[in-house]
Design a protein that fits this description.
508 residues, alpha/beta, Rossmann fold, 2 domains, six-stranded mixed beta sheet, 12 helices, 23% helix, 26% strand, globular
């Protein structure tokens, strides 16, 4: 049987200034595809070169230019019905996803998308916690840029909870997987959860964050995500109008889960660098056992040609994730003086909360308190459950919580090779809820506090291991009746000032 010819397009990450970032991956794929005896030949390899370190360049600008590059460089082969496989790294993943969604996912075009497979290595699909550090500080991080100051436009997109992240991921979550298949695309996410200590920055602990590769969180790479919409009940006037109104309940109105997407955690891989980088560390020959797994997994992804094959790969990679995370649960560092150092690698979840009112206006000032247990008490949350919390600097109505999933749901005891208990078993939260105090809470236009009761169901919907959940919270906008009044004026009555009219308790 003749080998199928495949065009491969590589798209690098953000702030890259040289094609050296691809390492030996292109050459290894050429060689290993043949050596493995697969019915596959990599016919052409295109290495992308794009500018992302200028402030005026936005992520949609890059995807627009990518579309032009595809039409220019691949027009002849695409006219013959050929399609290409795209392999991306880091921000390259969201760039190509934005291109696909912008030009093929949300508009009708003649023919299929020219891209058949999208294989993303450590993609920042839900951003990076590092993005909020600012251009100058990020430019100094060896793990990401190595002296190149990044552009503000893409930096804003990458910040956790950005509008761009919502716009890219909410259509995917609600898509029902109809675009996955031979007539659509086959998406894959491969990432690591190891930290290359050579790139650890003692001033920026995100570079050594648990559940990440030093730049992108595992949960921030995975496309298997959830969406929840919580709606505050309509305000009701209390029996005595002088006592104002209330709307204490927040209710779940919508819950969606993204289509099952192939996802794999590769052993011993960090975000970048020649030693452990998921792309850069790939050696020249197959004798380099440290990266054989990466090559084999990429080739496995490239070989998928039907939806049935894809579903099989999804299951295989999901099992690999469970096995690898179990095997890497406890890391023992014996290099420290006198005694071993232990690092527990739990699973983590990200939850992004966005607060807007019924008119669509952002609610930028609020307190959000999580609750747990049968009584809905914040004190019932397990110790160490929250690894990080970050408010978006551009859109302060959005806040991202980074949960230790295993502590939230409960964990068995962890022992070392000698049976010594490193961490005792934990019970978990049992249930999850939240209370919200939005502001302004007085005046002519205001908001009312509300709460969703802590339940096991909400905990299971909001938290998934290695995944991100987007939570839209819709609050009621309370407008005082005194914003506009029409009073009858008697003939000859003196003029009256309404400058000091109080808001009053009645609402419209």
């Amino acid at each position: 049987m003749a080998r199928r010819k495949v065009i491969v397009v590589f798209v690098h990450g953000w702030g890259v200034t040289s094609t050296k970032s691809y390492g030996h991956l292109p050459d290894r794929l050429r060689a290993d595809a043949k050596n493995a005896g697969l019915n596959l030949v990599i016919h052409d390899v295109f290495l992308s070169k794009y500018i992302s370190f200028h402030d005026e360049v936005l992520l949609p600008d890059i995807s627009r230019a990518f579309n032009n590059a595809v039409e220019e460089q691949l027009s002849e082969v695409l006219k013959r019905g050929r399609r290409f496989v795209c392999i991306t790294h880091s921000t390259g993943g969201p760039v190509v996803r934005d291109w696909w969604q912008r030009y093929y996912g949300t508009v009708r075009r003649s023919g299929a998308c020219p891209m058949s497979h999208l294989i993303m290595l450590a993609p920042a699909n839900f951003g990076s916690a590092l993005a909020q550090l600012g251009k100058r500080r990020i430019g100094r991080l060896k793990s990401w840029f190595g002296g190149v100051e990044p552009g503000q436009g893409v930096l804003d997109w990458l910040e956790l909870g950005s509008d761009g992240i919502w716009a890219l991921n909410t259509p995917w979550i609600s898509s029902s997987g109809r675009q996955i298949g031979a007539d659509g695309i086959f998406p894959f996410v491969l990432t690591g959860q190891s930290i290359d200590r050579a790139f650890y920055d003692h001033l920026n602990t995100y570079t050594g964050e648990a559940g990440s590769d030093g730049v992108v969180r595992v949960a921030g790479a995975n496309m298997n995500s959830n969406y929840l919409r919580l709606v505050q009940e309509k305000p009701q006037q209390r029996g005595d109008k002088r006592n104002g109104c209330e709307a204490p309940r927040l209710r779940l109105r919508k819950f969606e889960t993204a289509p099952d997407t192939a996802f794999c955690i590769l052993r011993g891989k960090s975000h970048s660098g020649p030693g452990m980088g998921i792309m850069r560390s790939i050696g020249k020959t197959a004798k380099d056992q440290a990266t054989v797994e990466t090559i084999e997994t990429i080739l496995q992804c490239m070989s998928v040609s039907s939806k049935a094959q894809y579903r099989s790969v999804v299951k295989d990679l999901a099992k690999c994730c469970v096995d690898r995370q179990s095997a890497e649960r406890l890391e023992v560092d014996s290099r420290t003086f006198r005694m071993n150092a232990y690092f527990i690698h739990d699973r983590y979840s990200m939850v992004v909360f966005r607060l807007r009112d019924v008119e669509g206006h952002p609610v930028n000032d609020f307190d959000l308190v999580l609750t747990a247990g049968p009584g809905g008490n914040p004190d019932h949350l397990p110790k160490g459950f929250l690894a990080d919390r970050q408010l978006n600097s551009v859109s302060p109505n959005t806040i991202t919580f980074y949960f230790n999933y295993d502590l939230m749901v409960g964990s068995k005891k962890i022992t070392d090779g000698d049976g010594r208990v490193i961490r005792a078993a934990t019970r978990g939260a049992g249930a999850l809820g939240m209370r919200i105090w939005p502001r302004p809470d007085h005046g002519f236009v205001r908001y009312l506090p509300c709460e969703i009761r802590a339940t096991r169901g909400l905990l299971e919907k909001a938290l998934r291991p290695n995944c991100t959940t987007l939570v839209d919270i819709q609050l009621q906008r309370v407008v005082s009746k005194n914003v506009f009044r029409a009073d009858k004026v008697d003939p000859g009555a003196p003029a009256r000032s309404f400058k000091r009219t109080p808001p009053g308790e009645e609402i419209v």
